[in-house]
Amino acid sequence: MSMKSRFADIDEAMSVYVANEISIEKNKELEELIFFSSYTIKFDVFKKATQKLKKILRQKLPYEWHIWEEDAAKVIEKYHLDIPHGSERYTYLLKALIKAQIQINEAVMGHFIGLCKKAHSFEYIESRAEQIYRLLFDDIEKESVCKTSSPF
Fold this sequence. Notes:
- The protein is mostly helical.
- It is built from seven helices and no strands.
- The protein has helices spanning about 5, 10-25, 30-35, 45-60, 70-80, 90-120, 120-150.
- Helix 2 packs parallel to helix 6 (about 90-120) and helix 4 (about 45-60) packs antiparallel against helix 6 (about 90-120).
């Protein structure tokens, strides 16, 4: 019997959790994602953090797993899971949370790389420039119409 079949309720909750977290991250305002490309925070930081999570996951004993206890409490409450603290199910949940964070990080990195490629493509820049010009000129035309038609 595999771990997945023994803890199907946890697997299902984690699947929903990962999908929700990825959706939240991908739908953040572009301005919130810009910090990835700033000079102070290099994109490599996220790659290194994800690699560290993979290393933590490979450890036999859960030395650094305690940092996930706050997230575990939220998942247990949100998805109404019956998981006693310190049980085998709890350890499985902590491990699942680390795997989830790896998936979320990789999805966000992939999304950001896609945004960077899109932003640096000539067609995208050109289309955005056209939209900006239309916006500017429409505003200028509206202002000039308002000023000329005003009796003051």
